Amino acid sequence: MNKNDKNSILPYFSLIIAMVAISFSAIFIRWVDKDISPLVVGAYRQTFASFIFIPFLMKDNFSEIKTLKRRSVTQMSLVGIVLGLHFGFFISSVTMTSVAAATLLATSHPLFVVFFGWLLLKERVSQKSQIGIFLSFIGILILFSGELIYYSGSSQGNLFALISGILAGIYFLAGRTIRSSISLTTYAFIIYSISAITLWFSVFLTHADYYPIPRRDIGIFLLMAFVPTLLGHTLHNWALGYLPAYIVSVTLLAEPFGASLLAWHFFDELPTIWVIIGGAICLVGIFITLISKSKSQETISSIQDS
Prior knowledge:
The protein is mainly α. The protein has helices at 3-7, 10-23, 25-31, 38-52, 54-58, 63-66, 70-96, 99-106, 109-121, 127-150, 155-179, 184-205, 215-239, 245-251, 254-267, 273-295. Helix 4 packs antiparallel against helix 12 and helix 10 runs antiparallel to helix 16 (273-295). The radius of gyration is 19 Å and the shape is globular.
């Protein structure tokens, strides 16, 4: 990468595209027929997402995959299972609560990356990071409390969204060291494939109907694979090669705003006052956490490959 590449506007433009693309994830989920199980939606999405990378792997005849050590494959398989569970909970949450609440709670994963990094890996957490984490959890508590008191029907959906955020944090933390020694294409293919298998296993375990699926919904599954995954998370990863990690990480906070605006436009769905207040506090906390981590050279370097 040369200096001109770093100063180019292209990485910033790619982030704008990525932010818009990721914001459509919850919208696509809402467009799927309500009779289709969220697990089936996730299984098809991740299956199609893994297929995207096969042509790129065929260029070198899957050479890197053939040389992977058993330990690496085992580690990536475990990470893939966590990712599959994340999608299962997130997609379910979008069908059970507001788009704003679901995306906000799922996007709280940077907090859990920092928290689990401190708890499990003994990583240093600065005072500003501690303040950011505290603020974020206050925001989450306000959101949950308000929704629980006035909209008890959405409490399970909010809980599922929070669980999906925790799983995403584990996914990023676990995959952070693995990703450094494996190419993005190989890593994404294996992780997505295992997540798809995990979701299909859940589909069969719950006896969910997965066939036949209307052509319209198959088309939406393909859009999920190409737009939020390929244009969204893949462009985020590409931008990491040209921009500081904290800048790329912070742009993920745009998803709740983008998704909420789209939900307002397509579904006439406005977030409640509790989501707005709690969400604003939570996002400020996440922003403080990410910025303080970047300054201490411990910025979250892994970006969502789902």
